[in-house]
Each structure stands twice: as C-alpha cells, then as structure tokens.
Specification:
With 589 residues, the chain is α/β, with parallel strands linked by helices. The protein contains 24 helices and 16 strands. The structure holds phosphoenolpyruvate (PEP) and magnesium ion.
Amino acid sequence: METLKGVGVTSGIAIGQALLLLDEEMVVFREYIEENQVEPAVKSFIQAIATAKSQIQSIKTQMKGRIGEEHAFIFEAHGLILEDQSLKNETIKYIRTHQCNPDWAFSQVLYALIREFQGLEDSFFAERAKDLEDVGKRILKILTGNKERGFKNLKDDIIIVGSEFGPSNITTFDNPKVKGFTTDLGGPTTHTAIIAKALNLPAVLGLHTISRKVKSGDILILDGLQGNVIINPDAETIANYRKLAKTRKRKVSPYMGEVSLPAVTLDGQKLQLLANVELPSEVETALRNGAHGIGLYRTEFLFLQYSPSFPTEDNHYSTYCAIAKNARGLPVTIRTLDLGGEKFFHRAFIREKELNPVLGLRGVRLCLFRPDIFRVQLRGLLRACAEYPNIQIMFPLITQTEEFHTVKALLEEIRLELVGEGLKLDQLPKLGVMIEVPSAAMVADHLAQFVDFFSIGTNDLIQYFLAIDRANDDVNYLYQPFHPGFIRLLRTVIRSAKKAKIPVTCCGEMASHPLQASLLLSLGLENFSMNPTSIPDIHHFVCAVQAKSFRKLFRESKPITNGTVMRQKYLDLIRNQLSDNDYTRLIES
Ligand code: PEP
Ligand code: MG
C-alpha cells in the first residue's frame, strides 16, 4: 500500500481497478474467456510475437540503409526482447491460470517487468524499460488491432491512469463504470480539471509518477478532496473509504435549500451568481443550483464533440438555441471558440507543433487565422441570437482594442449576409470580451468604451500576468490570486468597467472559492460565474458576510505589498463572520 499526493479536483472518492491509458490506441481491458478459448488465445499470442519479429526485422533492414549499421543495433535489442523466453512463458502461464485474453495477460507481465526495471533507478535499466515498453506496445497493438476501444462494455469499476489527459479524453470517460482518473501532470485550473468538475468525476492530477507506479488491475482509492491516491490499499482501508464515500456524498451542497433566495450580502449588496458550463446538459443543473444565468459557455467542447470533423452551422445553431431555451430567458453568454494553447484537443486545428502554444495560435487569434471555421460558428450563433435575445457573445484572449474591432466587423459582415438571406436580426447582440491577458487589462479603460461587458478570466490572467503555466504543477505554488500586483491589475479592470458603466463578471476559478471571491467582492465585483456545483456554497457565503467590511479591509490595507499578509487578513475577517461549521466547509475543505 502506497499513498501519492497530488492536486485533487472534485471532492468525491473513487475506488476501482486501475486502467493504464498511456496510449489511446492501445488500451487493454481484461476479458474472461471460455476454457476452450484458452489454447487459441495462447496461439494468437505466439503468432503476435512472430508478427512483431518480422516487423522489427524489416524495420532493421530499412534503417540499415538509412542510418547505418551502428545505429540499427537498437532494433537488435528489440529483437532480443522478443526472443526472451521468460516474457513469453510468463504470459502463456498467465493466460492459462487466469483464463483471460492474451493482450491483458501480456500487459500484466510486461508492466510488472517494466516497473521492476524502473524501480532499479539505474540508467541502463531505465533504457531497457523503454525498449521493453516500445516492443510491448508493438505486440499489444498487434493483439488489440481490431478490437473496439471504447469504455462501453466495462464490467468492473475502473480508475483511469495516464501521464496527461486532454479534455477530449476526459469526455470519453463519461461512463458509469469509470469512477475517476489520475495523472502525472496537470494543475487545478487546467481544462482537464474544469471538465472533470463538469462531469463530477473525481480526479487527482499532478502525481508525477503514478503512470509508472501502477499497472492495469491494481486497486486504487482516489480521494479528490485530499488529493490522495492510495495504491493497492488493504481491506481495512478500502472499507473505511467506502464508508467515507457515502458520508461525502451526503455532504454535497448542504446549502441547496437556500439557493432560491436572493444572493444578497448581510448589508444588502445584491450579487449575480452565474454558471460556467461546458456541456448543454449542465444548464439544468446550473438552474437547479440557483444560477441566475449562464456566464460562460465554453464552445470548444462543442467542437470536441464533433472532432476530428467540425460542427456544422446547424449544429452550432441548435446547440446555442437549446442552451438559451433551457436557460428560460435568463442571460446566456456564449464564448466563441477558444481552442489552442493547452486546449490542444482538436487535431484538425493543429498544423504543426508550436514552441509556446499558450502564446501562439489560441482563442480569437486561431479563429481569425481560420475564418472558414470561425464563420460557420458565427453564422450559427447569430441565427440563434435572432431567436433568443437572452444570448450575448463573448470573445476570448483579446489583447487589444483593434482585435475586438476586427471580430466585431466580421460579425457585422456575417449579420448582413444573414439578413440578405432573410434572417430578422436588426442589430448585433451584446458583445463582450474576456479580460484574460494583461495587455487587455491594462487598456481596459479604452476597451470598455467599445464593448458591452467584460468577463475576467482569472485562470489565464494569472497565468499570463505571473508567468506561470497553469498546467504545470511544479510552479503551481506561484499561482497566487493575492499577489499584490495581481490585485492591482484586478482593481484596474473592475474600476474601468464601473467608470464606463458596463457590467464586469469574473468567470475564472477565483469566483468559486469563497476566500478569493471575498477579494473580488472587496474590489467591487458584483457578478460571479463559476462551475454549477460551487454556486450553493458561494450563495451561502455571500449571504453570510458584510460586503462593506471587505471593502473597508481593502481600503485600509493600501499600499498592498505582501500577498500572504493580505490573504491572512481576508481569512481573519471571514473567520469573524462565519460560523465554525461554515468556515470548515467553505474555507478549510
Ligand atoms: C479563464 O481563463 O479564467 C477562463 C474562464 O477561461 P478558460 O478557463 O476557458 O481558459
Ligand atoms: Mg481563459
């Protein structure tokens, strides 16, 4: 039994068998076979080894001509692995004793051996482990060649383990038998974390070594609240966690009963609590949890659904109409496509590997680079706007006013085109921008003269302002919403919006943490958009505190020079205003 500590994403507990997903093409599931199928399974395994041998032989011959004899020896090593009798015999034994499919048996034997080599911490064996993995994958590919790879027919509860998953992987995990997932890489504000929350799927990210420590079939306990993963726990630990999982489930949203009451602070400041959604089906949950509208619909997840193709204009139109309709007249902010950067999950968009994707063709830049795709989205979106006046449009990753003018001009051109085709849409809907790049924040006063609203994307704004990759957990400790410079930046944006009398929302993760939300409250923010499950907590929090006390704290703390001290002051003030129970739930957990 071993416990690894990482970043927990959802508060749930998951218990299940590990399923190693290192290569999407090659996921291996355990299948139980009939007794009379055992020898054919052994035969197909022996045949797979022979096929791998001949593949390696022909690669070796080709490579000799191209890279010379001295380098082709690498394939010699691969050939020797295939000659290894113990790997072969162990696998055959495993098939016979466990009566299972050959790919499962081989993966069990292979990964046990790889783990042993990796555990020796010697560079020679580390290299051998890589060779083994390479050859092993070849054999597994041969054995699993024609198999269906979805998670449809799972019999056991599983927890998926990998090095890193993009949001596209995660959406395929939406299956009752998939209880959670865990990765070597990733942090709390990555899109992987965001979609895990949307699917309410327990996850622990950033464990560094998990994909090298476990093999498929190991039992795992995943505690999303504590950020722990326990590998091969004993029976007592499993029993304890099963109990804990039940109470944790019951503890979800003790404040649900209050969400229909207005979100007003004790001193009478009215706030708007909105929902961020990634899937149209979340709108229902959002309203049930008390959302006053949809503050952010991330349309990249619609693209994901159709990947590797693209959604058609009608797909866009019907999805946006469905969201606006389900929102029952409440405001809905649809954000245009924000792919690129760490949202690398639509293969069709990726031209070549960018050196710094987060600073490259992402968000509105990518859209302007591919107007053929962007136009289809905008046409569908404007058609939906003609039917649902509660829709407003938002553009991501705007860096300067001119960029906004360019997209607005394109939108107007498309509106006229649609009007020419008979659509009734006299004017553009309300248009806003994400403030998530420092340059946009610094010109917020100018930008505010042209747009109808701002939404502060603190996930990216912190990343770009503090030079911290939001997906890199090694620098996550620097991801500080209370950084004095960042507080000043937030202040600038909120002030600019207020001066121009346009609404400003925060739709980054900051809005969903009571402590960070109190900082936003003290800066005068009134609109908070967050994942639907956080709304009851934030609702309860704002109703239990005095807004003016936070404003006073902020005023009296200037000049702010130390983020840690500042954070502590907010914590102390919150401590004074919340009951012990509320403090434990809202701040400490
Ligand atoms: C943000 O950057 O804060 C944001 C809400 O957008 P996303 O997380 O989709 O990049
Ligand atoms: Mg963003």
